[in-house]
Amino acid sequence: MSSALRRTAVEALVELGRSTDHEDRADAGRALAAFAGTAQAAGPLLELVLDRADTHVTRVTAHALLQRQDRAGLALVASALALADPHHADWIHTALRDAFTVYADERDAAMRICEELAHDPDEHVARGARGLHEGLARIDCVLHPA
Fold first, then answer.
1. Which of 89, 111, 114, 140 minimizes the number of CB atoms within 10 Å of its CB?
2. pLDDT of residue 146
3. Which class for 112: exposed (0-12), middle (13-18), buried (19 or more C-beta within 10 A)?
4. What is the pLDDT of residues 134-146, one digit of tens each?
């Protein structure tokens, strides 16, 4: 896809994320998570994970980022976790359990990424990654490799 089209899509989703309607913001968070690897989406995604008006937006956006199962998604959620108040942190951990309760190999891969992120130069990412790692370690997955 052309970078101009991607930029336009992100701009539209960022605008949707500013809506006063919490469902609009949740939809923006879900869709914007696909662009988590771009600098243009990072700030707005962090704001959506830490949505001040509705923790539904927090849970949905964090879950979408975690479902990416990659460094970009985990780093954004880690940063948000480091900045979160206890209430938002609870919803981030709920999204973590939702995303990683089924397959142990996916949880284990996320734990390895968090171990790497725990040494990130950004203190928020590093601190949050340690918190995510602890949360992942507490998850008893349903399916384990044979």
1. 140
2. 85
3. exposed
4. 999 999 999 999 8
E-strand stretches of the chain: none
Instruction: Extract long-range pairs of 135-142: CB within 8 Å, 24+ residues apart.
Output: 135/93, 135/96, 135/97, 136/96, 136/100, 136/107, 136/110, 136/111, 137/111, 139/96, 139/97, 139/100, 139/101, 139/107, 141/100, 141/101, 141/102, 141/103, 141/104, 141/107, 142/101, 142/102, 142/103
**Confidence (pTM):** 0.97
In the chain, % helix, strand, coil (3-state, to 5) comes to 75, 0, 25
CA distances to 12, 57, 115, 123 from 5, rounded to whole Å, are 11, 25, 35, 33
Per-residue pLDDT of 69-89, as tens digits, reads: 999 999 999 999 999 999 999
